[in-house]
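Run log, item B.
One chain of 238 residues. Sequence copied directly from the ordering sheet:
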Amino acid sequence: MTIAAIAGLISLGRWQLQRADEKHALYDAFAQGTDGGIRTLESATPMLPRYQHVRATGHYDPTRQVLIDNMSNAQDQAGYYVITPFELASGGWVLVNRGWVPLGASRADKPSISVPSNVREIQGRTDNLPRAGIQMGDRVPLEPPYPVVANFPTRAEIGTLLHESDWTRAAPVVLLDAAEPDGYLREWQPPGFPPMRHVAYAVQWFALAAALAVIYGVTNLRRVAEDGDTARSKGLSP
């Protein structure tokens, strides 16, 4: 039983190191998206690497916006991500995450997220829509009135809501740069814990495994010694 527990703790530590490697890759991609130049995003643009810096010309559709619920800022304050469809001048659509807004007095009190629909050029970086760690229950179709409040919607679900199928293949969503107008709080960074947090957790698991191994070894050595003493006291060979 103890050996199995030690093996389990070691497995948890190795898993945390694997997660640290994955987070290093995400943070490297985030940095490369900033430093690797800017790509023009159009309807026919093929899928781009995650966090690629892009520019796009077109206009927002302020009448059909989505609020992604259960999003928090760096201080763990509850709120929404504001997702606005952006019609590309070259044809087709892309979703733009214009940033985070706080929750009102209740979820019935939706924030004001109006935006002008004039033609403009925007800049941002490609990303995925937020995803739930565990999906609970059946998916509920999204329905107006707008802005629609949704829990971790997919782009396909948003496309069905908007009755639009012509989406750029470049990325599910563009994170609007902090310097761009008509946005909200934008503290973009890779999701989840930073790599060093996972390394710290791995060290904790390995330390627990080592401590349990020492306790197990000492306990068994003591038991062997006690068995030997008992045997000698009875005049038996140990």
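Observations after the first pass:
- Residues 195-233 form the longest helix (39 residues).
- Residues 37-192 form one domain.
Flagged for discussion on Thursday.
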